[in-house]
Design goal:
alpha+beta, 9-stranded mixed β-sheet, 4-stranded mixed β-sheet, 25% strand
Length: 425
Amino acid sequence: MQDTAAPGAPTGVTSFFDQPGVQLEEIAIGPGVPLGIEVVSNAGVGIGGAYGAWGKPYDNAALPALVEDCQGRAMDDAERMNLAELGFVCRHHVPNMPKALQTELEVQVGARFLVEAAHANGWEPADVEGLLIGVTLPVVEDYTERIARAAGIPESALKVSVHKACDGSVAGLNLALNPGLPTSLGPASRLAEKLYGKRVLVGGIEGLSRALRSSRDIQAQQLFGSAAGVIGVIPGQTMKFLAGGMQEVYDQEGLLQVHMLYPHARSASADAPLIDVTRPGENHIRVAGFQHEPAAASETVVMAGPMGMVKLFVRSGVVAVRGVVQSYRQLMSDLGMPGKEITVTIAHHANLKINQLKDRYLQKEGINLRIPWLLSEFGNVSAASCMIAFLRALKQLQPGDNVLFDGFGAGTYYDVLAVELGAGV
């Protein structure tokens, strides 16, 4: 696989909408909202999917005007972030619209990604038997059910809404593939057994620009954007579980606070589980992570400075990755392949500096992973980022390649798993 690791700030990157292979259309809601989708398939491994963004693209030069319009005041120099240095050159934002129109928009957009992802695998939406979607700030509580219905996915298909912030899509993949998850997850702990051999869509769909338009956090408004990435897998065939785990290290300091726009028991007990698993419908499971919420009920996200993000994610993130890599290496040794390395690591794109620092910490422990920087045109798109990054690497992958997924997000939640890519079926 070609080395696409980014040693520094990206150069020569254009808007996602301007790139070849992107299907452009306008969603006729409100003033009209542009939507761009790229469909990717790799027949050799039998995996395909769709990714993209909706809303007007704002490059780093145009973004301050949007933020200042939202804030009602000009930013000072200290508030302006060096976004190129953090790996981002563009992101997508939607216009301000009433809640009903935003809901209609995001349901239409989500359904389009599901349909395109199914077709990328040679399936019709009616063939889909499982759907696991990570979403940080859902526009409505039953978002996963609504987009499934709008896409034509059967009511009988198992639907899982995963609310673990930026970790959401990798957490969904872990649920779909890992047969050894803790029983504390209740009905979600044995999903891998139920989904084995079935046609499953996994992804992240994040309307973050809608949720952050009224935010008072200037840093968050500069970093995040709206995007989605959805892949299709057949657990045990096109993607095989090798090793994995999940970890929770609660953010007591509130370094990254997120308002829970989803149902959660919200127990304040010190020994209460952070992950609340419920079954809101016969074929719908919700996996919701407890968040340190902002004090103001009207606020959606409140972030500490860049060093706070490093403190929050790097140290615990290294521990989570190290444990899975050790399990992976032991498995390869047991199988008589002690030298088989991970082909590529797909990590959440929080920002380039966090990923580079995490890589350096892992190298100090003798873990040399290829963690390419594959997203520059989207900003931080939370749970969508790992699925977009995987789809951007997909065409270069071969049957038998081993891939490490590294998800992490506010809360703080970590899902890490190593998988083997199978042959096309």
